[in-house]
Design brief:
Aminopeptidase; 2 domains; globular; 12-stranded mixed sheet; 11 helices; single chain; alpha+beta
Length: 365
């Protein structure tokens, strides 16, 4: 289905690179389980006009989820924009599947094609909030700096001048060199997070296998870019960006920890690169994707909440599964709070210390 899938992907304006055949097929090879695949397709004649890439799981009732799993930032179905009837036909096909399983679509980006299915659904359904993605408008660097205020803007301009003085060189990696470049990126990614809790999935062989295979095909198709950054002829950072007409999204990067001791600010380096990719492609947004890393907030991004869409034909099924979904969301929230607790405690201690010093000076006066 690769050729037809690629044509449909190109006719679905809401699609992101995570709906490309290269990403989904590669993910299935590394993460799929035999017998679980359920791909719903709608054709007009011989041509594919809508598709929903799903797999069945048991939680404990049968549940149909989108391919891509936890390493995919945006999940969606594909619908040709040419005719509203295509979304209606896909909805009808999904209703037949929903007689025996709840359809649970996670990480649906606002404006996604899946919203058309949700809007046309006749039967029990539920719309829940999912992960928050951070996003910047597709402005030139001066425009983004203007958003952050004069003080931080001055620091960013200073960091840009230091990048130029350091002589950092960028190289777009061609498709036939992607495999070793992704290996370098993952090695640097592990180094940068060493001792600070790297995401466990990022060090597993299946992740490296999937990312290498998918990135090679996506770079060849123009759906991604792999970039290496060098100092003195040595690669010190590498970055994978997903690309589509509407956005550029920084998916994963690795940077050597020694850069912390130089005058190269990695965040500014990656942001400048992302801004160029957004501008060069005339894209409306620079997406920072999921994740609430502190350095992202320095740029005052917009917060866009992904949606979790639950669809079924059985009222009790969606009620029971939505309770499971809410419980899982509370668990994730508690884990996030626990992970951030040391940071919050340090911030509160620093604030109390500053207030105490200020109070002491006032008392002395």
């Amino acid at each position: 289905m690769a050729a037809q899938w690629g044509r449909l992907y190109g006719r679905c304006g809401a699609a992101t690179p995570f709906q490309s055949h290269a990403w989904l097929y590669s993910w299935w090879l590394s993460y799929g389980r035999r017998g679980r695949l359920r791909v719903v397709v709608v054709r007009r004649g011989e041509e594919l006009v809508a598709a929903a890439p799903l797999m069945v799981t048991y939680r404990p009732v049968p549940v149909l989820v989108a391919l891509g799993g936890a390493i995919t930032d945006y999940a969606d179905v594909l619908v040709d924009d040419a005719d509203p009837a295509y979304a209606a036909a896909l909805t009808g096909a999904l209703r037949r599947l929903a007689r025996t399983a709840v359809i649970d679509l996670r990480e649906v980006r606002p404006g996604a094609a899946a919203e058309r299915v949700y809007g046309a659904w006749r039967g029990p359904r539920k719309d829940l909030e999912d992960s928050v993605c951070l996003e910047l408008p597709g402005l030139p660097m001066d425009g983004l700096i203007a958003r952050v205020g004069s003080s931080r803007g001055q620091r960013i301009r200073s960091q840009l001048r230091k990048l130029d003085a350091a002589g950092v060189e960028e190289r777009a990696v061609p498709a036939h060199e992607v495999a070793p470049a992704v290996g370098t990126m993952l090695r640097l990614h592990l180094l940068q997070w060493q001792g600070r809790g790297v995401t466990p999935e990022h060090v597993r062989p299946r992740f490296a296998e999937h990312l290498t295979r998918a990135a090679r095909l996506m770079v060849a198709n123009g759906d991604a870019a792999v970039t290496e950054f060098s100092l003195g002829g040595e690669v010190v950072a590498a970055n994978l960006t997903v690309l589509c007409p509407s956005l550029a999204g920084g998916y994963l990067y690795g940077a050597h920890p020694d850069l912390r001791t130089t005058k190269v600010d990695v965040t500014t380096l990656l942001m400048r690169h992302g801004v160029r990719q957004t501008q060069d492609g005339g894209r409306a947004a620079l997406s920072l994707l999921r994740g609430a890393e502190p350095h992202k907030f320095h740029w005052r991004p917009d917060h866009l909440a992904n949606r979790r869409l639950l669809l079924t034909t059985r009222p009790l099924a969606v009620v029971l599964h939505s309770r499971v979904a809410l419980a899982a969301a509370r668990t994730r929230l508690a884990a996030t709070a626990k992970r951030r607790l040391p940071v919050l405690r340090a911030w509160r201690a620093g604030l109390n210390d500053r207030l105490a010093r200020r109070g002491g000076k006032a008392h002395g006066a």
